[in-house]
TrEMBL record, chains A, B:
NCBIfam families: phoU_full (TIGR02135). SUPFAM superfamilies: PhoU-like. The keyword Transport applies. The lineage of its organism: Bacteria, Bacillati, Actinomycetota, Actinomycetes, Propionibacteriales. It is found in: Cytoplasm. It comes from Propioniciclava sinopodophylli. Belongs to the PhoU family. Residues 17-103, 122-202 form the PhoU domain. This is Phosphate-specific transport system accessory protein PhoU. GO terms for cellular component: cytoplasm. Plays a role in the regulation of phosphate uptake. Keywords: Cytoplasm, Phosphate transport, Transport. It comes from the Bacteria. One of its GO terms (biological process) is phosphate ion transport. Homodimer.
Length: 221, 221
C-alpha cells in the first residue's frame, strides 16, 4: 500500500532522528577507539560509515521525490529543505567520526593521543556527542530552546581547541611531531562534528520559525 | 518592475557563477598570502569572507523564495535544489580560504610553510584553484564532461596530501612542531576546497541528468 504524503514526510523526519542516533553512536565508538585503543571499535565505525552513507542516499532520494511530486509549500517545504541539509550534516558527521577512527587504527596498538591530552579530548568528545544527541532531540521535539542552548556547548569546544593548540605548540611538548599532527587533526574533526550539530539546530529553528538564526554562534567557523 | 520567474532563476545561476569567481580569487589570494607572506592579501581574504557570506545569505533566500512561490518541478526544481547546495559549498570554500589566510597572518612576518614544502603547496593550490574555476565553467556551460574531469585533479590533490604526511612525519623533519601542525591543517583546508569543487561538479551533473554520479571519486572523503 502506498504511503500518504504526510506519512512519507513524517517518516523522513523519523528516519533523520534514527540516523542522528546512529551518528551519536559513531562519535562515541570513535572516541572509545581513540582513547582506549580499541581496534574493534575503530573497525566498527569505519564499517558503519558505509551504512550511514546508504541512509543518506535513501533519505535524500525520498526528499527529492517528495519535493518533485508534491510541490510542498510553507512549513512542509521548509521541513523538506531542512531535511536535505540535515541529512548532509549527518553524513558529514559520520565521515568525520570515521576519520577519527582511522587515526586510532593507524596508530594501533599505540594510542594517538598522549596521556596528558586525554582529559581534553575526553571532554571534547562528550560535548560533541551531547550536541549530536541534542540535535536529534531538537528535531524530534521541535524544541527551539534546546537548539539555542547548543551554541553554549559549542563555545566550550572552541575553548578546548584553543587549549589544545597552546599545549601542542608549547616548548614543553615532548611527544613529537606525529602526535602533534594527530591531535591537531583530531581536534579539528571533533570541532567540525560540533559545528554540524549546531547547524542542525539552526535548521530546526528554520523549520519551526521560518527564520534563520542570526548571530555569531550560528555562523560556520 | 518585477522580474519573471525564469529571469529570477537565471539570475540565481548567474550570481552563483559570479560567486564562484570570487571564491577562486579568495583561494588565489590566500595562497599568495601563505607562500609570499603577503599580509595585505591575507587581510583581504579575511575581510572578503564577510562579503561571500552575505552573497550566500542573499542567494539562499532567493532560492527559498522561488521554491516557495513557484513550486517548480523537473529541471527547475533540480536547479534550485542544486543551487542551494552549491551556495553552501561556495560559502564553505570561502571559509576555508579565510582559514588559510588566518594561518598566514598568524605566522607573519615568518612564513607558515617551510621552503622545502612550498612546491607541494604551490601545486596543491593551483589544482584547487583550477578546480574551483572548472566548477564555475561547468555550471555556466552545463558541461558534464568538464565536471567528470575534475575528479582526476582531485586524485592528484590526494597524492600531494599523502606526500605531505610522508615529509612531515619523517625523522628528517627539522622545522619543529608548529610548522608541522600548520602544514597538516593547511593541507586539510586545500583538500576540502577541492572536495567542495568536486561536489559542485556533481551537483551540475544532477541538474543536467537528474542523476547523482556514482563511484568513489564522487564520495566525500
Amino acid at each position: 500500500m502506498r504511503e500518504s504524503y504526510h506519512e512519507e514526510l513524517t517518516s523522513v523526519v523519523t528516519d533523520l532522528v534514527t540516523m542522528t542516533d546512529r551518528v551519536q553512536t559513531a562519535v562515541q565508538d570513535a572516541t572509545r577507539a581513540l582513547l582506549t585503543t580499541d581496534l574493534a571499535a575503530a573497525e566498527k565505525v569505519i564499517g558503519d560509515d558505509v551504512v550511514l552513507d546508504r541512509l543518506h542516499d535513501d533519505l535524500e532520494q525520498r526528499c527529492f521525490s517528495l519535493l518533485a511530486r508534491q510541490s510542498p509549500v510553507a512549513g512542509e517545504l521548509r521541513t523538506l529543505v531542512a531535511a536535505l541539509r540535515m541529512v548532509a550534516d549527518l553524513a558529514r558527521m559520520g565521515d568525520l567520526s570515521a576519520h577519527i577512527a582511522k587515526i586510532a587504527r593507524m596508530r594501533y596498538p599505540r594510542g594517538a593521543v598522549p596521556e596528558s591530552m586525554q582529559p581534553n579530548f575526553q571532554r571534547m568528545a562528550v560535548l560533541a556527542s551531547e550536541m549530536v544527541e541534542a540535535a536529534g532531540r531538537t528535531l524530534r521535539e521541535r524544541n527551539v530552546l534546546d537548539a539555542e542552548k547548543m551554541a553554549d556547548h559549542d563555545e566550550e569546544i572552541d575553548e578546548l581547541r584553543t587549549h589544545q593548540f597552546r599545549v601542542l605548540l608549547d616548548d614543553s611538548w615532548n611527544h613529537g611531531v606525529e602526535a602533534a599532527v594527530d591531535c591537531a587533526l583530531l581536534g579539528r574533526y571533533y570541532e567540525r562534528i560540533a559545528d554540524h550539530a549546531v547547524l542542525m539546530g539552526s535548521r530546526v529553528i528554520y523549520i519551526v520559525t521560518g527564520l534563520h538564526p542570526e548571530g555569531e554562534n550560528w555562523t560556520i567557523a
